[in-house]
Design brief:
Length: 223
């Protein structure tokens, strides 16, 4: 029987992962997004702030297009990102990327950026309602940082039902996670099933740690 994989990222982001996992022997794929994005309106006050800062920090692809869409003509902020994909989205919107974090955690992102750009500056950081204030705290008093919730990361009720049905079928071999929040949402449903043994693949050390901290073994998947 072909090994079956559940992909939990947004549907438009799964094609490359399917190719990689197919090369590892997976022949069947299910797709259930566990983290879906709802954009929030950008107020005039936030627009002014975005157009006043020297730097934009993106730790996710989710707010890139909406934030860059309100940049006024003549304003070219420096942009720092976590992840090559986020950098690619910035470039697709017609902007350059000044800094790409060599690591995927926020702490490593800030540390590497500060090493390269030690002078104090002004920064706008769009985030979801699930994000903490770690970036603002790590950047310290020498920088003027505005963190603003511009999108909501949600777990739809219909996705919960789909996931429960799939888990109860007992056909899965493995599940692939791209964030700690996706893992936590999966676990909230998985704990209500028979919890048949599965392999849990993770993008990045942070997601792997979230799986391990819950008492399961996360397998780091190199993309």
């Amino acid at each position: 029987m072909k090994k079956a994989m559940l992909l939990t990222r947004p549907l438009v982001m799964n094609a490359e992962d399917q190719i990689r996992f197919r090369a590892q022997g997976f022949g069947q794929f299910y797709e259930i997004p566990l983290c879906e994005i709802k954009q929030m309106p950008i107020t005039e006050a936030i627009k002014r702030k975005i157009n006043a800062v020297e730097w934009l920090f993106f730790t996710s692809q989710a707010p890139v297009a909406s934030v860059l869409a309100v940049i006024e003509k003549g304003h070219r902020p420096f942009i720092a990102v976590i992840g090559k994909k986020t950098g690619e989205m910035v470039r697709s919107c017609g902007f350059e990327v000044a800094f790409v974090s060599p690591q995927e955690t926020k702490k490593q992102f800030v540390s590497a950026w500060q090493e390269q750009f030690p002078a104090g500056t002004s920064i706008f950081y769009p985030k979801s309602q699930l994000a903490d204030d770690s970036i603002e705290q790590l950047l310290g008093i020498e920088n003027e940082v505005t963190g603003s919730v511009l999108y909501r990361n949600v777990f739809l009720e219909e996705r919960k039902a789909e996931l429960a049905e799939l888990l109860n079928m007992g056909e899965l071999s493995a599940v692939y996670f791209a964030s700690p929040s996706a893992w936590k949402r999966f676990l909230s449903v998985y704990n209500k099933t028979e919890k048949k043994p599965l392999v849990f693949y993770a993008i990045g050390a942070t997601t792997k740690k979230a799986i391990n901290d819950s008492g399961y073994e996360g397998v780091l998947f190199q993309r």
